[in-house]
UniProtKB/TrEMBL annotation:
PANTHER family, alphabetized: PROLINE-RICH RECEPTOR-LIKE PROTEIN KINASE PERK4, PROTEIN KINASE DOMAIN-CONTAINING PROTEIN
This protein's UniProt keywords: ATP-binding, Cell membrane, Glycoprotein, Kinase, Membrane, Nucleotide-binding, Receptor, Serine/threonine-protein kinase, Signal, Transferase, Transmembrane, Transmembrane helix
Subcellular location: Cell membrane
High-level lineage: Eukaryota, Viridiplantae, Streptophyta, Embryophyta, Tracheophyta
PROSITE patterns: PROTEIN_KINASE_DOM, PROTEIN_KINASE_ST
Entry-linked InterPro entries: Kinase-like_dom_sf, PERK1-13-like, Prot_kinase_dom, Ser/Thr_kinase_AS
Organism annotation: Dendrobium thyrsiflorum
Pfam families (UniProt xref): Pkinase (PF00069)
Domain Protein kinase: 86-361
Record-given protein name: non-specific serine/threonine protein kinase
Length: 372
């Protein structure tokens, strides 16, 4: 009798252990399957920096047939020379220390190749810009496809090719030629740029200050969606404000006066420049008139006060010939006014700007086709 009981207990224990082993094996198999699935999609969906916070436009998941999922990558100098026909292809941009060439990569992918003409100091700036670009992924920031750092005296950044020029030419040269940027498209550009700046300031693993927000640094794609470019003045990883290098950066008309006075740069410096850009979108005027050396902001005070009170006729770009929403102009003018305020601590955050536009400027987020 006792033997029967012992045999029964032994069999029960063996059955329990067998069941436990099966469960553990199934769990391990399931974990391995999940890991395999993660590895399968990890290459195409992984990002160096965190994406935008909830409510912001983030990058769409890469598809398996998306050739750009292979980028960014390191290119050889020979590949760069081939893509630019040994740097004899069309020059599509030129800066103080760089030249941008049109390029054709493998699989006929159009690209822009930015060649840095480098000294030791400028090569350090190239490395900093590259480090920042490898961390940012946003639909309204120009996409880095690759880079080449083989040459000691030259650095190369390779970007997606944006086909429709920049916002400066569209607002000024385009308007003069009869190609006027509609009001709804202007508000949409402002909103999407605000999202991109909010992402840089608060959505990345390290805060990024762009440092040179202006219309010529905003490219437009075939649908007139904005792509922020040129991170040559950018700074990364600051908790509040820092003292920048001795050489001042930024562009006349857009640069924060507080930065000029103190040499201190912060996220609010970008906010100031964004406020100037809003003023340019509203008025169609240049931020800095080289002929008269006049800053748009010096004559903006009275215009902005009148616009926020509903008197918008005198401030709005004459090329719009009355085709705009007066209430929206007043809101955009009010945003601009607080952004360019003298005290940086009283300027709004880009999160605040995004929220106000979403709430009070319907045309900025409208799905209605408003292509120029």
């Amino acid at each position: 009798m006792y033997l029967a009981i012992v045999i029964t207990l032994v069999l029960a224990a063996a059955s329990f252990l067998a069941s436990l082993v099966c469960v553990l094996l199934l769990r391990r198999r399931r974990k391995l399957c999940l890991d395999a699935e993660d590895l399968e999609v990890g290459v195409t969906t992984a990002r160096v920096a965190d994406g935008p916070e909830s409510g912001l436009d983030g990058p769409p998941p890469a598809q398996k047939n998306d050739i750009f999922a292979l980028f960014p990558r390191r290119f050889s100098w020979t590949e760069v020379e081939t893509a630019t026909a040994n740097f004899t292809s069309d020059v599509i941009g030129k800066g103080g220390f760089s030249t941008v060439y049109f390029a054709r990569l493998k699989d006929s992918i159009a690209a822009s190749v930015k060649l840095h003409h480098s000294s030791e100091r400028l090569h350090h700036a190239f490395r900093l810009e590259l480090d920042i670009l490898l961390r940012v992924h946003h639909p309204h920031i120009v996409r880095l496809l690759g880079y080449c750092d083989e040459q000691d005296d030259q650095g190369v950044l390779i970007f997606e090719f944006i086909s429709n020029g920049n916002l400066h030419d569209k607002l000024h040269s385009g308007a003069c030629a009869g190609d006027v940027l509609p009001w709804a498209r202007r508000t949409s550009i402002a909103y999407r740029l605000a999202q991109a700046l909010h992402y840089l300031h608060d959505g990345c693993e390290l805060q990024i200050i762009h440092g040179d927000i202006k219309t010529s640094n905003i490219l437009l794609d075939s649908d007139l969606n904005p792509k922020l470019c040129d991170f040559g003045c950018a700074r990364m990883g600051f908790s509040a404000t820092v003292r920048p290098p001795a050489v001042m950066t930024g562009s006349p008309g857009y640069v924060d006066p507080h930065y000029i006075r103190t040499g201190m740069v912060s996220k609010k410096s970008d906010v100031y420049s964004f406020g100037v850009l809003l003023l340019v979108l509203i008025t169609g005027a240049e931020a800095f008139d080289e002929g008269t050396e006049r800053l748009l902001t010096t004559v903006a005070g009275k215009m902005l006060r009148e616009a926020t009170n509903g008197e918008v006729a005198e401030i709005v770009d004459r090329y719009l010939v009355g085709e705009y929403d007066k209430g929206e102009v007043a809101v955009m003018a009010a945003i601009s006014a607080v952004c360019i305020g003298e005290n940086p601590s009283l300027r709004p955050s880009m999160a605040d700007v995004v929220r106000i536009i979403e709430e009070k400027v319907p045309s900025a987020i409208s799905t209605v086709d408003c292509k120029a």
